């Protein structure tokens, strides 16, 4: 996530020119700091139960000045190679030993020197959920047999430092587990979820008749709430609790910066794809492309941002206007009529330029250059609690949302073949590769491997990363068509939907 | 638009039961009141030029206690028949004399006794736009030859009285015309629209170099603004100015109630379909259904409404909570855990019930029974400036939006046959008829007429209205499948996209 955070507003406001300033990327928490993952038990908001993230690991981890996903199993030498901007070696889990669940493929590459370390992080886990009301001591194995585990994949694209991405990669799935703890019995019961539960989380809910309130006492027919929507709500709240934990712990653990989060939860036959940021997930099924996320940027969220600025003008200080203009207005243009867009508009109209319109627009620029408050190019994600407009005390966080959009894909609804995959990639992939090109690479690479060869998905992830990175020529990393490859960090998961070892 | 506004909150809050109260429908302004259409020149907001609606008609109209669209050419006897709840005769323009432009079909029927008069209104016009900068005295004919006219169709579904719908049917197209006056030359120029115009609206814009600002002075590449987006912006602002005019004139002209507005503007080869409310527009092309609008209801706009209540809690008074619950909470359930949805959530989760949660939810109910503040079932439209929560001074208008969603259909991109039509209907049609059934009726009716018979579109509109109304049996209006037909007002336009006389 390079060039995603700019501290250029002062320069822009004063000169009217295009800034070339880049984000400063502070180091990750150093080796002597406690692992943010588990050092503190997050405090749950009083009214929302079940938000305690599990106990800290028994031994403190020793960490280098930067880290890569543990499943890469990097030696100290491998870690140095992964951190080499000149070589930009593609990293994947070793072909020996334990594979990732479902034979998931993974590959990543560091950026071309734009930030000191790779600010992407990733996580792939099988997470077992113990019911808050279950008998203490139930073995993990028995829980696994009851199907109360979920599979989890997460990509975290950091900006302005790798701290938030690293913390999220270590903790977000634990927040999801906590949110699911109250739902273990409910999700396994074929009956619709009870609308009301007794106050004590430990009490089994089904002996309580409060969810059988007679229809007469209701102001309208009861809304039917599905099991699926409970899982969606659990993931949404886990994102919020993760973000709140980052806010609390940012000083103690140097959790600087922020990150986009793209997460997949497989639970009871369904894939829940949750996206907050500008990473992307697509399914390739029988050659067809099924989008499983959309990107949240200043352009796609313009109206949400403008509405907030309009309703809460104090968030704009005296520096910004919530109106959008197609270019910077010059003071000499006062009184003339300029095209603008208000928060309710998708079209453009002319308005007479007034003094307030000379302020900097809350949302400006296009495509990868679009920015909120001339600073950040992504509008959802975790962290960024310290982010301020340059040369100002104006916080940007109120305009950012930590809530993901969750899309659900029912794996049981389709017969999947070994070539059907879910591809997750950070924006480093998608900046230079479109969905169709990814689908073509899926077809090309998988067809050269036996369907039951579990290494084919890692080979595919590597091909996708290599194809987006390019090779070093002249002063840039070039693609075969001589276009510039991505100089950004790139991380890719390839999750087979019907391959050997799936759902294991 | 029946049952769209309820004044039932007090009853609901006190009893927890389902209310059977209905909206009170005040009469339209009576015959002695000045026609709201043109009696006052609307005041434009200071910073937005060109919002003056044209001069009043030269003679004051004599109006009965209710009115129907002038293109129906109803005699006093016909007007009485159109107002007869028992007969529910389907009304259409006469088959003799001047047809509607494009041989547009139209049909309507009054409700089955739920409100005193038909609260739907309709308008179909060819509107000529004179440039603000053009030489005074340019003849209408010369403007028409230059193609500076637009075709206009509007359906207005009133609630809590017919005043807003009638006013909108007489004035909204004039507001659109006013907004387009500044754009006459710009829309005809193949160059991209200038970003900045001189301050005097009368000065031709193209002699002014201000839109040729050198790129160096811009903070980013200039955003490209299309001609199409200018028309969209003009329509959006026209809706807002119409709503503001209603707010100003509501007392003087008894503009009570509100209305949904579904409007089509055909200009320079494109159809602009603007919808604010729960009417619906679909195109049937070669048997395929192309949705041209979506409905704005408490359910579809839940998150927008909740966000507003969250950011501006003063709008909720002490009666409402912005949280959504799947049913009414009983005081005895305090401390238990209830399913809820917050403004950022699409899924559900459990929360401990606190005292504030006993307030009435801002958004409650499902489907046609969904309500904002237990009062209104539609969330976009014009008017409703006086609407208050029952037994309270709490205004509901802040939660309603007057802005339409505008979709654009380029007529020049397809070859259309005489059976391709755009169907506009108020919710009376869509409550009992789905898109596929409408497409089947289009096919069935049009195939019985010669392709060049201009009366086929009116016959189709009549068939659609009849099919949704049903016939009087027992105590209801029944459909052939014995389901209840719509007891609501129903109005339908059928606009041929490739038929004889099209685009004339």
From TrEMBL, chains A, B:
InterPro entries: PP2C, PPM-type-like_dom_sf, PPM-type_phosphatase-like_dom. Residues 62-73 have a biased composition (Polar residues). It comes from the Eukaryota. Residues 1-103 are annotated as: Disordered. GO terms for cellular component: mitochondrion. Pfam families: PP2C. PROSITE patterns: PPM_2. GO terms for molecular function: [pyruvate dehydrogenase (acetyl-transferring)]-phosphatase activity. Residues 103-497 form the PPM-type phosphatase domain. PANTHER family: PROTEIN PHOSPHATASE 1J (PTHR13832:SF305), PROTEIN PHOSPHATASE 2C (PTHR13832). This is Protein phosphatase 1J. It comes from Mesocricetus auratus.
């Amino acid at each position: 996530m390079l060039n995603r955070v700019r501290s250029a507003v002062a320069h822009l406001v004063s000169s009217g020119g295009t800034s070339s300033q880049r984000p400063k990327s502070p180091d990750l928490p150093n080796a002597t700091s406690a692992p943010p993952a588990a050092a503190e038990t997050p405090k749950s908001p009083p009214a929302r139960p079940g938000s305690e993230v599990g106990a800290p690991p028994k031994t403190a981890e020793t960490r280098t000045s930067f880290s890569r996903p543990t499943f890469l199993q990097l030696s100290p030498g491998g870690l140095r190679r992964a951190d080499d901007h000149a070589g930009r070696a593609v990293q994947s889990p070793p072909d020996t030993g334990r594979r990732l669940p479902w034979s998931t493929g993974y590959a990543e590459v560091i950026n071309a020197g734009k930030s000191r370390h790779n600010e992407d992080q990733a996580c792939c886990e099988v997470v077992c959920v113990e019911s808050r009301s279950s008998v203490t001591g139930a073995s993990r194995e028995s829980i696994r047999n009851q199907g109360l585990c979920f599979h989890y994949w997460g990509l975290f694209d950091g900006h302005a430092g790798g701290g938030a991405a690293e913390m999220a990669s270590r903790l977000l799935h634990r927040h999801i587990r906590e949110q699911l703890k109250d739902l273990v019995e409910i999700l396994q019961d074929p009956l619709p979820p009870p609308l009301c539960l007794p106050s004590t989380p430990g009490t089994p809910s089904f002996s309580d008749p409060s969810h059988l309130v007679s229809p007469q006492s209701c102001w309208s027919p009861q809304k039917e709430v599905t099991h699926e929507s409970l899982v969606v709500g659990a993931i949404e709240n886990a994102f919020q609790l993760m973000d709140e934990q980052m806010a609390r712990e940012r000083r103690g653990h140097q959790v600087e910066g922020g990150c986009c989060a793209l997460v997949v939860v497989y639970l009871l036959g369904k894939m829940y794809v949750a996206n907050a940021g500008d990473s992307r997930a697509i399914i390739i099924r029988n050659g067809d492309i099924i989008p499983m996320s959309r990107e949240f940027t200043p352009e796609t969220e313009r109206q949400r941002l403008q509405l907030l600025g309009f309703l809460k003008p104090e968030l704009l200080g005296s520096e910004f206007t919530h109106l959008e203009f197609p270019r910077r207005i010059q003071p000499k243009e006062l009184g003339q009529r300029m095209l603008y867009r208000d928060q309710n508009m998708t079209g453009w109209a002319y308005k007479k330029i007034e003094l307030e319109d000379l302020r900097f627009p809350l949302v400006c620029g296009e495509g990868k250059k679009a920015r909120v408050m001339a600073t950040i190019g992504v509008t959802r994600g975790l962290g960024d609690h310290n982010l301020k407009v340059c040369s100002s005390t104006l916080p940007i966080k109120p305009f950012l949302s930590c809530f993901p959009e969750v899309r659900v894909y029912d794996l049981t609804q389709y017969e999947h073949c070994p070539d059907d995959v879910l591809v997750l990639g950070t924006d480093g992939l998608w900046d230079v590769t479109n969905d169709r090109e990814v689908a073509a690479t899926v077809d090309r690479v998988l067809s050269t491997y036996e369907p039951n060869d579990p290494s084919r998905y890692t080979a595919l992830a590597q091909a996708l990363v290599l194809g987006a990175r390019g090779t070093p020529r002249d002063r840039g990393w070039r693609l075969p068509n001589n276009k510039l490859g991505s100089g950004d960090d790139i991380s890719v998961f390839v999750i087979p939907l019907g391959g050997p070892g799936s759902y294991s």
